[in-house]
Write a structure and sequence with these properties.
Blueprint: H1 18-40, H2 45-58
Length: 68
């Protein structure tokens, strides 16, 4: 997807307070683009955002096997 190659690297360590701010600034436009694409294909934007939250939570390491 166009734009994914433009995600900047963090300039502070993960423990720095600015890390989360930088991450939101880096990923926000990408997520907006994905939602725009889904909506333009006919998907409901709110449902698509909810599904992205679900998929993101599933991607977190929690010691359980990933379900397909």
């Amino acid at each position: 997807m166009e734009g994914l190659e433009n995600i900047p690297a963090p300039s502070v360590p993960v423990t720095d307070m600015a890390y989360q701010v930088q991450l939101r600034a880096a990923l926000g436009p990408v997520l907006d683009r994905v939602l725009d694409m889904a909506e333009s294909c006919g998907w409901d934007r709110r449902k698509a955002a909810y599904t992205m939250m679900f998929l993101a939570a599933r991607a977190l390491p929690d010691g359980k096997a990933r379900q397909g």
